[in-house]
């Protein structure tokens, strides 16, 4: 499955972390976080960009009712906080570790700008990544505006399959081992958790999939 939500399966940490560059290696450090620790909050100063060395990070915000809205769950090799590169002064989202062994590479915005200025390949990768994130947002808005909940869920599962899935050699099913809860999925596709549970059970009855807490199996005959 092809997906515009993916950055070519590239580990950005391996490409962009300053410790890969001799000039910055000696003074570069990593930050460690436990589960539920916040990397930054809404309204914090946007003065750094972050690369995930290990672990998982949840990106989200709180709506006017105080309900948490999850925008993404990121894992090893991914970049976040990148709007600071474009001039964002304050965060409009929070970033929270959801793993007990999350390590983050923080990069000051001036350092990132210097790396981009001195390395054209580096700069192009950053801009391509940001462009693809905008496409991802546009894709999600189209789903929310023009498609019903069941269609949104099925298309989201296809994206999950591209991000976290693999084919089972014996059955040909697509198996997705993913970090999302039903609450997270509901937030990401603009519906409620009870609706997600109903839809998953409907798809199970239709022999489209089987699921448990951490695994979704899209059955071969429905793929």
TrEMBL record:
Every Cyclic nucleotide-binding domain range: 12-91
Keywords: DNA-binding, Transcription, Transcription regulation
Pfam families in the record: cNMP_binding (PF00027), HTH_Crp_2 (PF13545)
Keyword hit for Phosphoprotein: no
GO MF, one example: DNA binding
PROSITE patterns: CNMP_BINDING_3, HTH_CRP_2
The keyword Kinase belongs to this UniProt entry's keyword annotation: no
Occurrences of domain HTH crp-type (ranges): 147-222
GO CC annotation, single: cytosol
InterPro entries: cNMP-bd_dom (IPR000595), cNMP-bd_dom_sf (IPR018490), Env_Response_Regulators (IPR050397), HTH_CRP (IPR012318), RmlC-like_jellyroll (IPR014710), WH-like_DNA-bd_sf (IPR036388), WH_DNA-bd_sf (IPR036390)
SUPFAM superfamilies: cAMP-binding domain-like, Winged helix' DNA-binding domain
Name of the molecule in the record: Crp/Fnr family transcriptional regulator
Native organism: Winogradskyella flava
Taxonomic lineage of the native organism: Bacteria, Pseudomonadati, Bacteroidota, Flavobacteriia, Flavobacteriales
